[in-house]
Amino acid sequence: MNEAQQTGALEAMLFAHAEPVETERLADALRLSAQDTEELLHDLQQRYDEQESGLTILHFEPDRWQMTTRPYYGEVVKRVLDTRRNAPLSPAALEVLAVIAYNQPVSRSFIEQVRGVDSSSTVTKLLEKGLIEEAGRLDLPGRPVAFQTTDTFLRVFGLGGLKDLPPLHDEVAEDAAAGDVQEAPMADGEERAEQLEWK
Protein backbone atom coordinates (compact mmCIF):
# COMPACT_ATOMS: atom_id res chain seq x y z
CA MET A 1 0.00 0.00 0.00
CA ASN A 2 1.15 3.54 -0.69
CA GLU A 3 0.88 6.28 1.94
CA ALA A 4 -2.57 7.41 0.78
CA GLN A 5 -3.87 3.85 1.03
CA GLN A 6 -2.28 3.40 4.44
CA THR A 7 -4.01 6.56 5.64
CA GLY A 8 -7.28 5.33 4.17
CA ALA A 9 -6.86 1.98 5.92
CA LEU A 10 -6.15 3.81 9.16
CA GLU A 11 -9.34 5.86 8.80
CA ALA A 12 -11.34 2.71 8.09
CA MET A 13 -9.98 0.91 11.15
CA LEU A 14 -10.57 3.84 13.50
CA PHE A 15 -14.09 4.31 12.16
CA ALA A 16 -14.95 0.63 12.45
CA HIS A 17 -13.38 0.15 15.88
CA ALA A 18 -15.29 3.09 17.43
CA GLU A 19 -13.46 2.79 20.77
CA PRO A 20 -9.89 3.96 21.58
CA VAL A 21 -7.31 1.61 20.06
CA GLU A 22 -3.58 1.25 20.76
CA THR A 23 -0.94 2.44 18.29
CA GLU A 24 0.72 -0.98 18.35
CA ARG A 25 -2.51 -2.70 17.34
CA LEU A 26 -3.01 -0.32 14.41
CA ALA A 27 0.63 -0.77 13.40
CA ASP A 28 0.32 -4.57 13.39
CA ALA A 29 -2.74 -4.38 11.14
CA LEU A 30 -0.95 -2.03 8.72
CA ARG A 31 2.31 -4.02 8.85
CA LEU A 32 4.11 -0.81 9.79
CA SER A 33 6.29 0.26 12.71
CA ALA A 34 4.63 2.01 15.63
CA GLN A 35 6.58 5.17 14.79
CA ASP A 36 5.41 5.24 11.15
CA THR A 37 1.84 4.57 12.26
CA GLU A 38 1.98 7.37 14.79
CA GLU A 39 3.22 9.76 12.09
CA LEU A 40 0.25 8.79 9.90
CA LEU A 41 -2.09 9.37 12.83
CA HIS A 42 -0.67 12.83 13.52
CA ASP A 43 -0.91 13.70 9.80
CA LEU A 44 -4.53 12.54 9.71
CA GLN A 45 -5.30 14.48 12.89
CA GLN A 46 -3.74 17.62 11.39
CA ARG A 47 -5.60 17.19 8.09
CA TYR A 48 -8.95 16.96 9.86
CA ASP A 49 -8.12 20.10 11.86
CA GLU A 50 -7.04 22.08 8.80
CA GLN A 51 -10.18 21.07 6.89
CA GLU A 52 -12.39 21.87 9.90
CA SER A 53 -13.82 18.41 9.38
CA GLY A 54 -16.77 17.18 11.40
CA LEU A 55 -14.47 14.36 12.50
CA THR A 56 -11.41 14.54 14.69
CA ILE A 57 -8.76 12.12 15.93
CA LEU A 58 -8.34 12.10 19.71
CA HIS A 59 -5.12 10.92 21.35
CA PHE A 60 -5.55 9.33 24.76
CA GLU A 61 -2.42 8.91 26.84
CA PRO A 62 -0.24 6.99 26.68
CA ASP A 63 -0.85 5.57 23.19
CA ARG A 64 -4.52 5.14 22.24
CA TRP A 65 -6.36 6.82 19.39
CA GLN A 66 -10.01 7.28 18.50
CA MET A 67 -11.97 8.80 15.65
CA THR A 68 -14.90 10.82 16.93
CA THR A 69 -17.16 13.69 15.96
CA ARG A 70 -15.81 17.14 16.70
CA PRO A 71 -17.36 18.61 19.90
CA TYR A 72 -18.36 21.77 17.99
CA TYR A 73 -20.93 19.73 16.05
CA GLY A 74 -22.26 17.94 19.12
CA GLU A 75 -25.59 19.75 19.08
CA VAL A 76 -26.52 18.74 15.52
CA VAL A 77 -25.26 15.19 16.04
CA LYS A 78 -27.53 14.82 19.07
CA ARG A 79 -30.53 15.82 16.94
CA VAL A 80 -30.26 12.61 14.94
CA LEU A 81 -29.41 10.32 17.83
CA ASP A 82 -31.26 8.97 20.81
CA THR A 83 -30.43 11.70 23.31
CA ARG A 84 -31.36 9.90 26.53
CA ARG A 85 -27.75 9.09 27.41
CA ASN A 86 -26.54 12.46 26.14
CA ALA A 87 -29.12 14.63 27.88
CA PRO A 88 -27.55 17.79 29.34
CA LEU A 89 -26.03 17.25 32.76
CA SER A 90 -27.63 18.94 35.72
CA PRO A 91 -25.59 21.34 37.87
CA ALA A 92 -25.42 18.63 40.55
CA ALA A 93 -24.08 16.09 38.06
CA LEU A 94 -21.46 18.53 36.78
CA GLU A 95 -20.46 19.26 40.37
CA VAL A 96 -20.01 15.57 41.22
CA LEU A 97 -18.15 15.00 37.96
CA ALA A 98 -15.77 17.85 38.76
CA VAL A 99 -15.08 16.50 42.25
CA ILE A 100 -14.25 13.08 40.80
CA ALA A 101 -12.21 14.41 37.85
CA TYR A 102 -9.94 16.58 39.99
CA ASN A 103 -9.51 14.16 42.92
CA GLN A 104 -9.85 10.63 41.49
CA PRO A 105 -10.01 7.96 42.60
CA VAL A 106 -12.50 9.01 45.27
CA SER A 107 -15.15 7.36 47.41
CA ARG A 108 -18.82 8.32 47.53
CA SER A 109 -18.34 9.63 51.07
CA PHE A 110 -15.55 11.95 49.88
CA ILE A 111 -17.84 13.35 47.19
CA GLU A 112 -20.59 13.94 49.74
CA GLN A 113 -18.14 15.52 52.17
CA VAL A 114 -17.05 18.03 49.51
CA ARG A 115 -20.60 18.79 48.36
CA GLY A 116 -22.30 18.61 51.73
CA VAL A 117 -25.27 16.64 50.36
CA ASP A 118 -26.19 13.05 49.52
CA SER A 119 -24.85 12.24 46.04
CA SER A 120 -25.90 8.61 45.60
CA SER A 121 -28.45 9.17 42.81
CA THR A 122 -26.13 11.54 40.94
CA VAL A 123 -23.25 9.06 41.06
CA THR A 124 -25.60 6.34 39.77
CA LYS A 125 -26.69 8.52 36.83
CA LEU A 126 -23.08 9.30 35.91
CA LEU A 127 -22.30 5.57 36.00
CA GLU A 128 -25.25 4.90 33.68
CA LYS A 129 -24.01 7.54 31.25
CA GLY A 130 -20.58 5.94 31.25
CA LEU A 131 -18.86 9.14 32.38
CA ILE A 132 -17.46 7.50 35.53
CA GLU A 133 -16.64 3.94 36.55
CA GLU A 134 -15.69 1.95 39.61
CA ALA A 135 -11.94 1.87 40.20
CA GLY A 136 -11.59 -0.85 42.80
CA ARG A 137 -11.68 -0.24 46.53
CA LEU A 138 -9.74 2.28 48.59
CA ASP A 139 -7.44 1.18 51.41
CA LEU A 140 -9.64 2.85 54.02
CA PRO A 141 -11.88 1.55 56.81
CA GLY A 142 -14.78 -0.33 55.23
CA ARG A 143 -12.90 -0.62 51.92
CA PRO A 144 -15.19 1.86 50.11
CA VAL A 145 -15.65 1.66 46.34
CA ALA A 146 -13.60 4.26 44.47
CA PHE A 147 -14.75 6.12 41.36
CA GLN A 148 -12.82 7.61 38.46
CA THR A 149 -13.64 9.22 35.12
CA THR A 150 -13.70 7.20 31.88
CA ASP A 151 -12.52 7.59 28.30
CA THR A 152 -16.11 8.58 27.51
CA PHE A 153 -15.73 11.53 29.89
CA LEU A 154 -12.57 12.64 28.06
CA ARG A 155 -14.24 12.26 24.67
CA VAL A 156 -17.43 14.09 25.67
CA PHE A 157 -15.51 17.07 27.04
CA GLY A 158 -12.96 17.07 24.24
CA LEU A 159 -9.98 16.26 26.46
CA GLY A 160 -6.91 14.31 25.43
CA GLY A 161 -6.16 13.39 29.03
CA LEU A 162 -6.66 14.57 32.59
CA LYS A 163 -3.76 16.98 32.16
CA ASP A 164 -6.07 18.99 29.87
CA LEU A 165 -8.56 19.73 32.65
CA PRO A 166 -8.95 23.46 33.36
CA PRO A 167 -6.52 24.53 36.12
CA LEU A 168 -7.76 24.85 39.67
CA HIS A 169 -7.68 28.02 41.73
CA ASP A 170 -4.36 27.25 43.44
CA GLU A 171 -2.61 26.42 40.16
CA VAL A 172 -3.84 29.57 38.44
CA ALA A 173 -2.98 31.66 41.49
CA GLU A 174 0.60 30.41 41.31
CA ASP A 175 0.77 31.35 37.63
CA ALA A 176 -0.68 34.76 38.41
CA ALA A 177 1.95 35.32 41.07
CA ALA A 178 4.55 34.59 38.41
CA GLY A 179 2.91 37.15 36.13
CA ASP A 180 1.55 34.60 33.68
CA VAL A 181 -2.16 35.36 34.08
CA GLN A 182 -4.29 38.31 35.08
CA GLU A 183 -7.02 36.67 37.06
CA ALA A 184 -7.80 33.27 38.58
CA PRO A 185 -11.10 31.39 38.58
CA MET A 186 -12.90 30.56 41.81
CA ALA A 187 -12.40 27.14 43.28
CA ASP A 188 -15.42 25.63 45.02
CA GLY A 189 -16.98 22.44 43.65
CA GLU A 190 -19.78 24.14 41.75
CA GLU A 191 -17.48 26.68 40.12
CA ARG A 192 -15.04 23.95 39.12
CA ALA A 193 -17.94 22.12 37.53
CA GLU A 194 -18.88 25.15 35.46
CA GLN A 195 -15.46 24.97 33.81
CA LEU A 196 -16.53 21.64 32.26
CA GLU A 197 -18.86 22.22 29.35
CA TRP A 198 -21.08 19.34 28.27
CA LYS A 199 -20.47 18.95 24.54
From TrEMBL:
The keyword Magnesium does not apply. The keyword Repeat does not apply. Residues 27-54 form a coiled coil. Residues 175-184 have a biased composition (Low complexity). Residues 173-199 are annotated as: Disordered. This is SMC-Scp complex subunit ScpB. The gene is scpB. Residues 189-199 have a biased composition (Basic and acidic residues). Pfam families: SMC_ScpB. SUPFAM superfamilies: Winged helix' DNA-binding domain. GO terms for biological process: cell division; chromosome separation. Keywords: Cell cycle, Cell division, Chromosome partition, Coiled coil, Cytoplasm.
